[in-house]
Amino acid sequence: MKLVYIATLLFLHISCKTDPKDNPALMEVWKNEILETEHQFSKMAQEEGMNIAFLKYVADDGVLLRNDSLIKGKQSIKHYMENATSKGLQWQPDFVDVSASGDLGYTYGEYVYRYQDSTGQTKQSKGIFHTVWKRQPDNSWKFVWD
What we know:
The protein has helices spanning 2-17, 24-48, 50-57, 74-81; strands at 58-66, 69-72, 89-98, 104-116, 122-135, 141-145. By secondary structure, the chain is an alpha+beta fold.
């Protein structure tokens, strides 16, 4: 019995001292979590509209940078996105990284936004996005910067 107790303590000591940077498999799990979240976010924006997707994936303290202005907090973002019902926004991350502690990550890549102008012509805008993700208490990922 004493040997089991000592082995358990030793295991806990070693596992608590393990640096995630020394565990590439764990880092990849976290990166894949963020990539999957980003994929689901983009899919929801295309299928249900930008307003619904952004509100689902923003943290309560999230911030949007739009037109050289900061929109701070989920409620302000909700108000800003009220009329953003378009389903023409698509994006795909080209890069993802995550902190050694597994609580923050970021992605960047290219986006394409297609919309109809006032004459009914389809227009397109392309650009680069950068999103900062934060792990939530329920272990989900929400963006805190977009």
